[in-house]
């Protein structure tokens, strides 16, 4: 008969006390997970988190108290755990897991890695490190009432990147600039405005009317005349918005008149836009204060201007939802614009959700998921991978009464661009218009998850295009790909040595990409535009970088997430199930939770992308 | 502008707004207010109890009374995270108090060291909800009968090794609201003319729908008659955990405690015997609960406490805030399979 140590069989209990595990993240899931691990009997735990504690964490990250606000999460978590389990051997790192110090050798120290993350970039990275080190990884995520856990084991299961995931939703420029129809469009516009006036100016974040809007469809003569006219009116084109604002001394009346009166009147001349839409109504400065608090936008402009001046010459502000004047400004500007476009205005509370990509979060969902993580962990220690499952936590039981739905794990995708033996990917772009910097930052890093890519051209000469060593290939950054002889059918070899990852990139030259689209990865999941009635949108619990204000993950969307699976008692893997594409899509969602913490609270590391705000990771 | 919600109502302080922000964004301010006015009794402060305590305190109830007459032992201390390492010999609830209070200073956390069996009826009436862990079947049935008729929400839960359950009785008429998206009226097709200029409805608008749901008593839920045809035909879809619960409750009554790892051999035998007795009394086959169950129902698995405590905690929050459809009326969790089912026993 089996010998028990508490609830566990003796062999299991023994292996627990000797094994070493890594917990990546000490937030909502992380706190619960650390507690479960030590109470279960794990003794050697390392935990890493780059973040510091915020008061909004305290409703669920129970290892932290009010007095800890501002301190390192990993450090305080360790101290709190030691208080109820002094014999635990815990090492805490206040650092980013993407720091090259945490190389494959580091990962090999552990028998198991558990993610408790809230952003895709880090998940992709840890996925690759665990593949490289051949260590099992337990992946998880939560958002609101929903959650998910899964197990990743090289060669046996899908890796985190085997299935393409929907990328963050972005709105076309003309929607933001000309024809907003939803509050979120106005909020995105307001964030762009903030950057144009006070922050880092971005050519992709224009706020003035978009004369190149295809819907406008002016005849050429007309277009030329209008182009000249716009040059006269406040010089939309030639002078940057920031320069213009500065030239007026950030005069609130002038700013207001341009943005909410003159520009709107200009839009009205683009009459094709308003044939089937309600036309915008320009605002008058004298009426503005009737709009309540939003009418006091001049105060926020004043405050932000002072902040800028304080920072000195050439300074830029970074938008932070927790910085009151920044948040106030965006709320006011967005609401004024909503008013112009006849939309119901939104409270500051609601605007903050949408602008800050806040994902609602509670203790109980994280508690359940962290419990499931440890149960899966116990199976991995025994190498019982065939017992491991993906488990979904729903808000309501499915028709088969299941609130927790275990599903068999899928085998690896043989064509996975990460874990296949010789990974390959095909990218469509315009070789004459894409610069090397964009290839590095937007394609290899942002889209394809590399941290420090080295790229050479497969041209027989092994020409080096990008070097991860700082400064070595800087001269190449602003050159076009075609300058290097790259054309349709060219191949690049991209390496990330930290991730031990080599990717062959096939390039297809195209001059017919959609407007605002710089490149396309062939075979990707198409970006789903939200259908008006479908709960699908709830599944794509917003993904995305804070910078581009994403549709908020409101709980309303999430509530529709019933996982309807036609199944037997034990869920077979999704690929063998008879499900409609829609419901199988639902099943495939990963739950990632966002971090809405401002960049300023992060420990800044050179390796971090500059705008490394945590995305709202959708449980997709 | 201050980032508080509806400050003119003066019902929520800035401190609460800041701390509860992420949950208010999920279940709304109304729900938070109701939580803030609720008093809860929690009986039993072992692994599951500690999890429920944490979840309720973090959620922001008005008051939580921790009731436990037992003393801290090395085993009980290792099972939960609220009791300090030097507390052996102290009362379990008392030892948990300090850490529990620190989780959220805005909640009134109290301690009661009496045995729950000794409490008079009216003791329970001061609470809006009662959560019973590690209690005998008889006591749970008694408290359930007392409370449900007074609109006091009753919850029971336990963890046995890898298995756990939760039961709820929210009374004959539990009222709650659900948030549903507003139906977008009007055609989506663009057409010329005045219709086209209609204001677009905000797709994010929602509406609150009122609902009522009815629960049966614990007694009815546990005394299902399996001999009739209807019950027999539903057996196939009935989770074995229901019968496991019956066995474990009987063990607790007969032996006065739960199966102990220290007396594994003896308790295993007793469990098998009780299984035979219980199923026979119900007119059912022992095969419904194969022998293997015995290895996995000793002590409390911490991760199982976390899962059951999470679901139970959230059900308490739902019931107190009267928001969202409650699970009716059992939740069973099998930590070996990772399956969690909601099932309804006892209603006509």
From TrEMBL, chain A:
It comes from the Eukaryota. Zn(2+) binds at residues 159, 162, 416, 419. One of its GO terms (molecular function) is metal ion binding. Residues 524-620 are annotated as: Disordered. The active site is at residue 174. ATP binds at residues 25-30, 49, 57-60, 73, 96-97, 118-123. Residues 524-615 form the SUMO-activating enzyme subunit 2 C-terminal domain. The heterodimer acts as an E1 ligase for SUMO1, SUMO2, SUMO3, and probably SUMO4. It mediates ATP-dependent activation of SUMO proteins followed by formation of a thioester bond between a SUMO protein and a conserved active site cysteine residue on UBA2/SAE2. This is SUMO-activating enzyme subunit 2. The gene is LOC107583129.
Automatic annotation (TrEMBL), chain B:
It comes from the Eukaryota. The keyword Cell division does not apply. Pathway: Protein modification; protein sumoylation. Keywords: Ligase, Nucleus, Ubl conjugation pathway. GO terms for cellular component: cytoplasm; SUMO activating enzyme complex. It is found in: Nucleus. This is SUMO-activating enzyme subunit 1. It comes from Sinocyclocheilus grahami. The gene is sae1.
